[in-house]
Sequence to fold (327 residues):
Amino acid sequence: MAELRLKLAITAYDHVRDLLDGSLPVEGVAFDAQHPEVEEIFYRQGTAAAWDVAEFSMGKLLSRIAHGDRRLLALPVFVSRMFRHSAIYVRRGGPIRTPPDLAGRRVGVPDWTQTAVIYGRGILQDEYGVRLEDVHWLVGNVSGERAGEERPLHLPAGVRVTRVDDAPLAALLAAGDIDAIIFAREPAGFFDADSAIVRLLPDRSVEEAAYRRTGVFPIMHTLIVRRALADEHPWLAPRLYAAFEQAKRSSLARLRSTNVARVPLPWVAPLAAESASLAGGAPWPYGVAPNRATLQTFLRYCFEQGVTERPLAIDELFPPEIRAFTG
Fold:
């Protein structure tokens, strides 16, 4: 088989390291890998299909699929996951002490379809009773990044969204002009000793309790392949899935090892074991079946929030050959 050279854009995660350094070869495939910031990957892949294979925002992907755009083929390789109760930021010493306090308040987001924002809004509604229509939503630049939507929104009736361009949302929050921000990154200045911005829910136990209760481990980014390329090479999608699964397994094995400190933090191996125990032995699952609860919840959030203009089913997201192979 002639080698297929693929342009790949992905964060240099440890769980893809074996693919990037060549220690885990993929039959018939060679990668030309780049590692831009994820916002650049999403923008360039979304507007110009700059790479053959890339990680991509789940929120933006679902918005495209619901709109009928099928140029990007998703694989259930969930390279980035993050619990998002901790993505809600408020002003230190301000009036917002608990999530229900956000009802009737002004909350900023970088764009309506950012995956972390979708989860944050869903958490507020599902777990704390703060409905979309209870909040005045402000969309704008948080800390200097590019903000904006790829396509028009289909907002539910009664939901208020206002564009803000006169100042970064982080500055407005610090000044008390808005009440909260939901954001995938820490806002500018967050790590300063005298930062005016703090997490509303800083305690990890809140996220652990939600996971035990719901089984939802939020998926941020999935792997996509240009559909034309996957159609031309039907063997490619299953082979990529298998390779990324093996690379992830190797990464988890490294984290459990106490031979050397592979991550510059103490107690990584016990934390890896603790996380595996919490997740029933599979702390970072790929595939459809073990992620069904998470995917169903996210699909619901996207439709309820107007990210998708129609309800989507899980079977619409991934190719049949991958569903058959992964369950």
Observations:
- The longest strand covers residues 72-81.
- The domain at 85-214 is CATH 3.40.190.10 (D-Maltodextrin-Binding Protein; domain 2).
